[in-house]
Write a structure and sequence with these properties.
single chain; mainly alpha; 434 Repressor (Amino-terminal Domain); 16 helices; 2% strand; Lambda_DNA-bd_dom_sf
């Protein structure tokens, strides 16, 4: 295969037009067209740049006897799975879907007590003609329904395990050009990631401000319960903003990892996902058990802010212990 054919093949494998390749090479489209039609040959500096852009060796570009399928054959013989651009894009799509399901489950668990707090607040003010017992009963039913739906979301993530395991659990290498494509995608996505992460973290920080303000200047339990709803909704919104974008950012890094083994970041992400699927339903169970045992709903709400902080602490502790063991 001559150089012209290799340039065409690599460019199409990356999904670029001649104009896009020309822009990356800082040349005109006509120059790229001449290279691909074999009417001209790029100079040595251009060859080096092409090798860097396509993530291939200069030997591969310059030597006609080196074919792309030879690399694939070697990968198969050595037991290494070669990941194409289509497979990589599918992996990103699946990781985003898994993150979406996990996020919905966590948000439902966090918000499951919102109806309870609302009906208890209404019972305090007699606006809906509800007694505390009736309000608590309705709230508990809402909690059980929402947690059941959340668990169904966690279970549905299993359907994607086989599709993402090739990249996360098996030895692989990227096909020619895939690394450069995803490196560029990650560079473009980083601004979105940083923005949403900043917004989400800011929401976590300010989530307790309404509750603190009301506790300082107002004493009504109904108002405090409504501020607890605001706190949980702000936390849930922050999770909904941060979790999917973090999962997508981690997926890009998994594709671009230098080694063929699972990275530490992907391990931490999967551990956090598994912990979330177990932790939040357990926290709901603890809250219900304590509340129903004491019937002191005005005190047991403290489980939620404490539980949120504890979850972050547990994730950090897992990473710390993992570093010490390694």
């Amino acid at each position: 295969m001559i150089l012209a054919d290799k340039i065409i093949r690599l460019r199409k494998q990356c999904g670029w037009s001649q104009e896009e390749l020309a822009e990356k090479m800082n040349v005109s489209r006509q120059s790229v067209s001449k290279w691909e039609s074999a009417n001209s040959i790029p100079d040595l500096n251009r060859i080096i740049t092409l090798a860097e852009i396509f993530d291939v060796s200069t030997d591969f570009l310059l030597k006609d006897d080196i074919e792309a399928f030879d690399s694939l054959k070697e990968a198969i013989e050595s037991g290494i799975t070669q990941i194409t651009l289509e497979q990589s894009l599918k992996y990103i799509e699946n990781k985003v879907e898994v993150a979406s399901l996990v996020t919905k489950g966590v948000v439902l668990c966090v918000c499951s007590v919102v109806p309870l707090f609302f009906f208890l607040a209404m019972a305090e003010t007699n606006k809906l003609n509800l007694t505390s017992d009736v309000a608590a009963a309705i709230g508990v039913v809402c909690i059980l329904v929402m947690v059941s739906i959340a668990i169904s979301f966690f279970i549905r993530t299993n359907q994607y395990e086989s599709d993402i395991s090739v990249i996360e659990n098996e030895t692989f290498e990227l096909a020619y050009g895939v690394h450069s494509v995803f490196k560029e995608k990650l560079q473009k996505f980083r601004n979105t990631y940083n923005l949403r992460l900043s917004v989400g973290i800011s929401m976590f920080i300010v989530s307790s401000v309404p509750l603190i303000f009301v506790s300082m200047f107002f004493g009504g339990s109904d108002i405090i319960l409504m501020m607890l709803i605001v706190l949980l909704l702000i936390i849930a919104t922050g999770i909904y903003i941060v979790a999917p974008v973090s999962a997508e950012y981690g997926a890009y890094n998994n594709i671009l990892k230098d080694s063929c083994t699972e990275t530490e970041k992907s391990k931490h992400t999967k551990r956090a996902e598994k912990l979330a699927a177990f932790y939040w339903p357990l926290l709901v169970a603890i809250y219900l058990g304590w509340s129903l045992w004491t019937m002191d709903w005005g005190v047991t709400w403290i489980v939620w802010p404490v539980g949120s902080v504890l979850f972050a602490a547990l994730v950090g502790l897992m990473e710390l212990l993992d570093k010490e063991n390694s």
